[in-house]
Amino acid sequence: xxxxxxxxxxxxxxxxxxxxxxxxxxxxxxxxxxxxxxxxxxxxxxxxxxxxxxxxxxxxxxxxxxxxxxxxxxxxxxxxxxxxxxxxxxxxxxxxxxxxxxxxxxxxxxxxxxxxxxxxxxxxxxxxxxxxxxxxxxxxxxxxxxxxxxxxxxxxxxxxxxxxxxxxxxxxxxxxxxxxxxxxxxxxxxxxxxxxxxxxxxxxxxxxxxxxxxxxxxxxxxxxxxxxxxxxxxxxxxxxxxxxxxxxxxxxxxxxxxxxxxxxxxxxxxxxxxxxxxxxxxxxxxxxxxxxxxxxxxxxxxxxxxxxxxxxxxxxxxxxxxxxxxxxxxxxxxxxxxxxxxxxxxxxxxxxxxxxxxxxxxxxxx
Length: 366
Description:
Elements: H1 11-31, H2 34-57, H3 59-63, H4 70-77, H5 81-93, E1 97-99, E2 105-107, H6 109-112, H7 123-129, H8 132-138, H9 141-147, H10 152-156, H11 160-166, H12 168-192, E3 200-204, H13 210-218, E4 223-228, H14 237-240, E5 249-253, E6 266-270, H15 278-291, E7 297-303, H16 313-324, H17 333-342, E8 345-352, E9 357-364
Parallel strand pairs: 3-4, 3-6, 4-5, 6-7
Antiparallel strand pairs: 1-2, 7-9, 8-9
Helix pairs in contact: 2-7, 7-12, 11-12, 12-13
């Protein structure tokens, strides 16, 4: 798994761009008639699904070696030429792809992230978002709002994580999607936070270990362990055999509700706590606390929910957690502080990054 080579712009610059973008978005919504603005929102889902279809068809991969004429592209991805033209017409209008004067289609900066081998690829994430199972549950959002929780038990007979464990194909799509989204924040996290001050790290619930592998590649004296369910190991085989990581990167199977490896300098929880209710999150944190030495540190990587009313990715993912998980949610800094305090920790700092993720650092309460 190669480390992403894309460098994150400075955080102040990104904040200024976000402020300008949000202001323009708000101005647009105020300038057009209400019913037009609402219609734009209502049809945004069509564009989203069209982009997911492009990921499923492998259009970006087919264009990775250069522009292609419509007939050639249709043959390459196994599509009807007329239907493909209609799909591309919509995606081109949104800047996902481009069309040259000679009629050939080509990649844009946006669609480069749909390529399977891009430094930061979102193809697997879009395959997950566009899958029948995922869309099905989003159609029941109103039901989750009424009930206050996920409808997975009612719709599938079990919670999502149990379903993913019993249905390997769904679990594989989910695991690859999480690795995909994880790659988005690796470079910004490395730029903002000094992971090199630790000699050893346990990545709790680390999946395919995207961030941990990146950290170990940058710090040759460090050791790391991915701790996750046994089925995850198969997806880590390539990383475990990587030159320079053999013997430094290990895998230990288990459940973070029962126990985690002892004695590490730091324990990493990336995109884990937001999957769980406060009660279950406390159980996870107390399990980690029991394994930690007094000088060890806990590093929680999550989005921290803002208090403002401007757009923020956390406000979307918070609903994803409502729909898909047994009590999961995005949390504010105050909510993280209270959760940590109840679990035997002291919150010592929150480091913002150029990505939506933050690093929430805590130490055991003495």
